[in-house]
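Collaborator request, handled under Task 6.
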Amino acid sequence: MRLLISNDDGIFALGVRTLANSLAEAGHDVTVVCPDRERSATGHGLTLHQPIRAEIVESIFHPAVKAWACDGTPSDCVKLALWALLESPPDLVLSGINQGANLGTEILYSGTVSAAMEGVIEGIPSIAFSLASHTYKDFVPAAKFARILVDKLAAQPLPDLMLLNVNVPPVPWEEITGVRFTRQGVRRYIDVFDKRTDPRGKTYYWLTGEVLEDIEPPEELNLPHNLPLDVHIIRKNYISITPLQYNLTYATALEKLSYWEIPLG
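Structure tokens returned to the collaborator:
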């Protein structure tokens, strides 16, 4: 398959190198376009008020991999690849493997998920891969599963245009319990900002925080309750796969609000 790979950890991140090399060794046609530095938590930002530059990168990846470093956001990277760098569209857009989970409401901020979502916006099925740890460095199990999933999609394409958000537990391959399709959960945090003082005596704030709880999404979303939450299943060493879409229309609310009459005066 023709694969476009991006990320938000940057072109030199071990996760994207492990993913790209593994898929190239499996015989896939792999192109990598990543930010030239870490661009985590950039969401779906695009660069509009300055030029975007991309340079060919050599000697980092498998010899069969074509790679560029881009000075834009993860979404910039995918958009630039699809409209300027690639001669033909890829079969899949992949993002990752991210260092750290992208679970629950974290996906709204994730550059990893946003890079993959850019592929979906352009009509290409996409997958975001994340290793659910900020310290565990063995990306091989996640890359191994990526090969399995890509081969599965080559034989059995997705029934609709979507993004698969994949989170892999930070354990050896033999300790992975299995694979489960999941619902997106909700994460709430405590102590989100750390207040500090700089050497000049001025106050500044550092965005931090720890997960306080992982909870069920609101009932009104009408999600299938027979499926587990992504934030819960990863703790049991399952690989979590959550199908996502970019259309954020609140269908239940739209139906209720359609009966409202709002006079203009």
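The cover message to the collaborator said: "The chain has one domain: 2-183+223-249. DSSP finds six helices and 13 strands in the chain. Please let us know whether this matches your experimental observations."
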